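Worked example 2:
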Amino acid sequence: MTDGWTRSFTRAPYGVLILGALLFFAGGSLLLGGVYLAVAGQPGSIAVPVLAAMGGTLTVYVALRLLLLRRRAWSATIVLLILLIAYAAARAVMNPVPFPVYPIAEVIAEVVALVYLTRPEIRQLFA
């Protein structure tokens, strides 16, 4: 088992490792946040903690599969980035501040990640 992970880390480019690590930590935060909300939350409000825990689990799974260079993980990451770009763009448009820095920075970072993942040499690794 360890040999497979070691081989994956040496085979995957640094950009994929960084994206996988960021997804892993984001998913872990969602998972732990969902557990915390379930334990310390208001009685009767179980939907949000369950959705957060499920989303966190799914994100951790996709992150680990991305590190293993699986094709479906690449596709799921592309879809996730497109959804995040749309969400951040909508927040930038609806923000009452004249120049919303955070949503614009998010859009830039997500577009950079999307362009990186769609480069032919990176996309070919996930075949």
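The mean pLDDT is 87. The chain has six helices and no strands.
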